From TrEMBL:
Organism: Cellulophaga fucicola
Protein name: Bifunctional NAD(P)H-hydrate repair enzyme
Domain YjeF C-terminal: 227-499
Taxonomic path: Bacteria, Pseudomonadati, Bacteroidota, Flavobacteriia, Flavobacteriales
Catalytic activity: (6S)-NADPHX + ADP = AMP + phosphate + NADPH + H(+); (6R)-NADPHX = (6S)-NADPHX; (6S)-NADHX + ADP = AMP + phosphate + NADH + H(+); (6R)-NADHX = (6S)-NADHX
Binding site for AMP: 411-415, 439
Positions bound to K(+): 59, 126, 162
Cofactor remark from the record: Binds 1 potassium ion per subunit.
Cofactor(s) the protein requires to work: Mg(2+); K(+)
Amino acid sequence: MKIFTGAQIYEADKFTIEKQQITSDELMERVATQIFNWLHLRLQGAQPKIHLFCGIGNNGGDGLAVARHLQEHGYNIEVYIVNYNEKRTDEFLTNLKRLKDRNIWPNFLTEDNELPQIAKEDIVLDAIFGIGLNRAPVSWVAKLMNHINNSQAFILAVDVPSGLFLDKVVTDPNAIIHANHILTFQSPKLAFFLPETGIYFNQWEILDIGIDAEYIAKTETEFDLVSKNEVLQLYLPREKFAHKGTYGHSLIIGGGYGKVGATILASKGALNSGSGLVSAYLPRCGYIPMQTAMPEVMVQTSKSDEHITDFNFDIKATVIGIGPGLGQHKETVEAFSKFLETNTTPLVVDADALNILSNNKKLLELLPEDSVLTPHPKELERLIGEWSNDFDKLEKAKAFSGQYKCVLVIKGAHTITLYKGKGFINTSGNPGMATAGSGDVLTGVITGFIAQGYSPVIAAVFGVYLHGSAGDLAVESLGYQSLTASNIANTIGGAFIELFRRPEAPQAQEQQQA
Ligand SMILES: NC(=O)C1=CN([C@@H]2O[C@H](COP(=O)(O)OP(=O)(O)OC[C@H]3O[C@@H](n4cnc5c(N)ncnc54)[C@H](O)[C@@H]3O)[C@@H](O)[C@H]2O)[C@@H](O)CC1
Ligand SMILES: [K+]
């Protein structure tokens, strides 16, 4: 799903209005009807007090139009105009007049007003600011926002939590609504998925307001959201006459004394994601553990017992996943550097292999084009340097992936894969996956996908999704605390099956009664 910028959303509204020959007011009415239906479906006529806080722009206009629908259906409402600005939009004014025509008189709030009483059983509709916010709200508005947040009432945000910018971080953490739920229009917003800006709400949901399909199809976006629908289109079906050679040969390189497990997890990831063959190259101490844990994996060893000191293996791999448990021993660094000078096999680079590259940036130039790098935040910082905020991080990471022509996978709650200036934001996964070895499994999964013939960027996007989805399935029976990397690796098969599971068809009325 495409993630539009603020400018694109305004453009999409304009395009839709012209093409569908509707007025801006009619588009707002669609929005308001959808929000009203959402609330009505859930409230079913229940009568909690609904406080509607409306700004003076079109976000406020949405709020006023919802207020009218709620009043027409007998709900118990209180409307407030948060009068932070004199520049009211036409749509706001039209909807204000419609309210007044129905004898609904909003409370106009300014700096001098007392803060309204909100009980924790009440509902708040937050329509103070939408995507038009371009500077931090003034202090009395921030105070009001704080008051709303502290009420413990259920807060439903219209389009975005008021105070959230689309393209920069919040400077005053007191000047933003903490929403329970966001009803956002047509496209999710980038800020929902970044660690610094994604903390101001619990859930988001898209309302389809009928933005023109042609605009959506033809407009290129900098970021896409990746869910099941997107990855299903990437899936390469298995052929009837396939043999193990059809699906490639993954080689996992890593491991050291006390860290052989990392390579076992990565090998499991590669094997379970469908790699035809998997080999591992380890120091000698890894030979028995690997052969015992993974009978399917072929093993060769470096000369030394405790860490890799040479890359003299005799394995014709389709792709190499390197780094889990590798360590940064002087001899390992030297051997890895030498290996990079001649290697042409596609690489997935993780963990200590990334750290070695960070310590010697010249080595980055030796990576084969389209290598996949999978840093966690600390490893990313070592690679690209410090960033001032999440938006700055994305810019720096994008520049890095362009400079070194690589696929950069920024691991996090919403892992972002960057390639050729475009970002793919993952939606699967859960906090239980922040556990030892989870990244090693991911390295293996991406390696396994490349082995099967997926391009590196698709392998990364698909692999990240499937890895997260395996975590989501596994957590259902284990809970967040007990989820382990082995569980994730063992549930990859389930995640494949889940991809093709269709939602259950609703049962016919007669059958239910029988
Ligand atoms: N036809 C349309 O344009 C549609 C707009 N929609 C709604 O319109 C919203 C965007 O509306 P607007 O562009 O009017 O903007 P907002 O309603 O988000 O903000 C209102 C105005 O306040 C001013 N402002 C920004 N930051 C401020 C600050 N810190 N203090 C004081 N004033 C500030 C800006 O001039 C801004 O235009 C969307 O989020 C969505 O809710 C929807 O109704 C869909 C259709
Ligand atoms: K809002």
